[in-house]
Amino acid sequence: MGVFIWNAAMITAQLVALFVRLQKPECRREAATDLAVFAGLDKCIVFANDPKSELFFTPLGFKQISAENEPWQTFLKRVGSIGMSSALLIDPETHEETPVFGVSDADNHCVLVFFGGMPETRALTAINTMLPLLGAKLACERDAAMASSHAARVVDATQRADALHEQLERMKATGSARDGLHIEAGQQTTLTDAKVTVRKASEELNKALDMSRVDLQVAYERAEQELAYRREAENKLRLADRRKDEFIATISHELRTPLNAVLGWAELLRMRSLVDPQVNKGIEAIIRSAKTQVNLINDLLDTSSIVAGKIVLHIETFDLADVLERARETVEPLASQKNITIRADYALKESMQGDSARLRQVFWNLLCNAIKFTPNGGSIAIRARSDGVHAQVAIVDTGMGIEEGFLPYVFERFRQADPSLRRKYGGLGLGLSIAKQFVEMHGGSIQVTSDGIDKGTTFLVNLPHTASEFGLPGESPGSSEEFDLHYVRALAVDDDPDARDVVSQILSSFGIQVTVTDSALHALQLLETEEFDVLLSDIAMPYMDGIAFMTQVRAIKDPIRAMIPALALTAFSDAARFTQARSAGFNVVMTKPVLAMDLARSITRLLYKK
Description:
Elements (H helix, E strand, L loop, with lengths): L12 H10 L5 H11 L4 E8 L4 E3 L12 H13 L1 E7 L6 E8 L5 E6 L5 H54 L16 H81 L5 H32 L7 E3 L1 H18 L3 E7 L4 E3 L1 H17 L6 E8 L3 E8 L21 H7 L5 H11 L3 E5 L7 E8 L24 E5 L3 H13 L3 E5 L2 H10 L4 E4 L8 H9 L4 H4 L3 E5 L4 H10 L3 E4 L4 H13 L2
Parallel strand pairs: 7-9, 13-14, 13-15, 15-16, 16-17
Antiparallel strand pairs: 1-2, 1-5, 3-4, 4-5, 6-8, 9-10, 10-12, 11-12
């Protein structure tokens, strides 16, 4: 499962040469060491997957590691399942405990294991792009070895049968039984009897050989038929998988589209600070319910994508304190409703690299879980620390706690200690499972501790990070709320009238001068004749969709107009469409329903923080 986006600029001649050497068994060990140095580490081992035994082996060129090494096999299978992971394991060569990081190719043919920590982010991105080439080579080697083994057994059996047949033919031709029959004096056995015996044995052998040939032909035909059935089944599975993806994408779009109008208008009403407290209370309830619905949709879609191995991480440089603060701000209304205090203490200086949106989702899930199981008047603490190599985030609540016997099952999907809690507190039981998957995809780990019932719970998240050499400086929490968007001219394109009205009102509330249109063709005409500072567009539109529209925008002859900052606002949430939108030229892709503050924040960063 690929977790990085192709970036040709990262593929250097040095890396290509390393992967060429990895194709050759005699060069593999040395090439793997050089690859580790390329990634900023000292050691790397290649493992090949054997689907038949469901085990991983070191290929030709490496010292064999026992298939009975259960910790290693468990780790390698986890890497193959989620794309990448980290662990503490015993080095099979030095027999010392060491941190390891594994990454697999999309088809799970092979796993690269780096010793000593996580590779540098840019190097890992490039390696992940090249890895399918090595995976395909190792798969071919495996298939060739199996074919060679089968051929050797067939040749051996044929040679034995031929030798026995020749021996019996000689006996029959010479009329002598000396080669295979010893006649003792006084016995009634005659030479004629020996000839008959030899002839019968020869006939039986010929029959057996004929039957073997028939059996082989039948077996061959069955194998061909089985192969045809398997190919047909694989094609049907691929078709079903594609249809499932299309169905999930459609469901996502249809569920999010009405929520976009509900949440957008509710936020606009809240920003107007209506006098009637009951109306304000109702607006808050609408916003809470809509956000809950959005997050339930996200959890279902993310779980489906994780199981299918289709989650893609969008790597960027970000400030972890900003991610934590954004998550805290999102859940603050839920905490206020229960009079729960959330205290934050961020001792973070270095920037991090990873998918900030996915990590924000992790901490949102953890905070929602803490709020859900903390009684009225309780408290939650967020503590973040960094040692320059790893960041550690602790979320501590004074809630109902967890029984010791249930702690190992906390991160399993659909699991709750008491089924009655689901009816009382709601939810699908997916949030913690998703959080664990996203943390591990970043090469981190997540743990949970509790002293028991009514003694609170602590979730501890460890994330590796590399200080950015080329990213933007981090922002202090709250600075992103200062928007200066007056006199900004925006063009918004959406075929849905409710969506157009909502985005127009949101942008206008921040002082933006908005022009809206329901057609990509009309938008292209406007871009040719009028001046705009930012472009917002839907993806799924009739006649010309957002991808084709953005491609044409970037092809406008006037370079200033062609390079207008652009945001995609889409009710689709699958990674493939996000990648497609970015490839077409969108600078930012946002999933509907879009929160007013998030939209203003994205436009501010896009215009003023290039």
